[in-house]
Q: What sequence folds into this?
C-alpha cells in the first residue's frame, strides 16, 4: 500500500526531452513563442468576431468558440511544460497532473466536436444557401456549442476518472511531456484491457465519427462547388472551406495517431512531438489560417484598427 501511494505523495517525473538538453532549450523558445502567438491570435479572433457586426454569423460564432477552446487547451499544457523544461528537477505534483489530465482531455474532446459542427455549418452555407439562415438559426448555434462543451466535460469525467483509479505501484517516471491518458495507462501495473477498450471507444466517438461526418460534408460541398459555373464563385467557395479543412487534417491526423495506437506500443520521441503538435502548434494555426485566408476577417480588423486610431486622435 505504501508503494502504491508513492506516486500520489511524491508526484511524477516528466522526462520529456531531458536526455537532450540542447533540443530542450530550442523547444523551450519555440513553445514560448507559439504560446504567445496563440494567446494574441485567438484573442484577436474572439474580439474582432464580437466587435465587428459583419462577423456576427454562425461561422464566426463557432470560430470564436474554437479560439476560446484553443486558448484554454494550450494554457492547460504550455505553462507547466515551460516551467518543467526550465528546471533540473522535472517534478510535477500528482494533483497538477490529474488537473491537467481532466482539463486537457475535456477541451481536446470539445474541439473535436466543434470542428465537426463547423463542417456542418460550411455544408449548410455552400449546399443550402437559400435556407442557410433558417437552418443555422441562433438557437441551434447556441445548442450545438453547448453540446460541444458539455460532451468534452462528460468524456473527461468518465475517461480520466477511470484512468486515475489505476494503481501505479510507485511508478513515477512519465516518459512524456504532459499528463495524458495513454501515457498513464502505460504506467499502470495491472491489466489495463478495460481502460484500453474504453479509450478506443471514446476515440472512435470523438475522432473517427466527427472525421467521417466532416468528410461526408466536404464530399457534398465539393459536389456542389463543382456545379458552380463562375470560376470566381468556385474559388470563393473553396477558399472559405479549405481553411477549415486544413485545420481538420492537421488536428485530427496528429491526435488520431496518439490515441488510436495501442497503449503499450513504443514510440518514444515520436509520441512527444505528436503531442506538441496538437497541443501547441495547431491552436496557433487556427487564427493564422482563418485570418490570412479570409477577406472578411482582414477587412474587419482593418476597420477596427482605423476606428481606434481615429478615436485616439480625436481624444
A:
Amino acid at each position: 500500500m505504501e508503494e502504491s501511494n508513492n506516486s500520489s505523495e511524491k508526484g511524477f517525473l516528466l522526462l520529456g526531452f531531458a536526455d537532450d538538453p540542447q533540443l530542450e532549450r530550442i523547444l523551450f523558445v519555440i513553445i514560448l513563442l507559439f504560446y504567445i502567438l496563440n494567446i494574441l491570435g485567438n484573442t484577436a479572433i474572439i474580439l474582432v468576431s464580437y466587435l465587428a457586426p459583419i462577423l456576427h454569423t454562425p461561422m464566426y460564432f463557432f470560430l470564436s468558440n474554437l479560439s476560446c477552446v484553443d486558448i484554454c487547451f494550450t494554457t492547460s499544457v504550455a505553462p507547466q511544460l515551460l516551467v518543467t523544461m526550465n528546471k533540473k528537477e522535472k517534478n510535477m505534483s500528482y494533483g497538477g497532473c490529474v488537473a491537467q489530465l481532466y482539463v486537457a482531455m475535456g477541451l481536446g474532446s470539445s474541439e473535436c466536436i466543434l470542428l465537426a459542427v463547423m463542417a456542418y455549418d460550411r455544408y449548410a452555407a455552400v449546399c443550402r444557401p437559400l435556407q442557410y439562415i433558417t437552418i443555422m438559426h441562433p438557437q441551434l448555434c447556441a445548442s450545438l456549442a453547448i453540446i460541444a462543451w458539455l460532451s468534452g466535460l462528460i468524456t473527461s469525467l468518465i475517461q480520466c476518472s477511470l484512468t486515475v483509479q489505476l494503481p501505479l505501484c510507485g511508478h513515477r517516471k512519465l516518459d512524456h511531456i504532459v499528463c495524458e491518458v495513454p501515457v498513464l495507462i502505460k504506467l499502470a501495473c495491472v491489466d489495463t484491457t478495460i481502460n484500453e477498450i474504453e479509450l478506443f471507444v471514446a476515440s472512435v466517438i470523438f475522432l473517427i465519427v466527427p472525421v467521417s461526418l466532416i468528410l461526408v460534408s466536404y464530399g457534398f460541398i465539393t459536389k456542389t462547388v463543382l456545379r458552380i459555373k463562375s470560376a470566381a464563385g468556385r474559388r470563393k467557395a473553396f477558399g472559405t472551406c479549405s481553411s477549415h479543412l486544413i485545420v481538420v487534417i492537421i488536428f485530427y491526423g496528429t491526435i488520431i495517431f496518439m490515441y488510436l495506437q495501442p497503449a503499450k506500443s513504443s514510440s518514444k520521441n515520436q509520441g512527444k512531438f505528436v503531442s506538441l503538435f496538437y497541443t501547441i502548434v495547431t491552436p496557433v494555426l487556427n487564427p493564422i489560417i482563418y485570418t490570412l485566408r479570409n477577406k472578411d476577417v482582414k477587412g474587419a480588423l482593418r476597420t477596427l484598427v482605423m476606428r481606434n486610431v481615429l478615436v485616439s486622435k480625436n481624444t
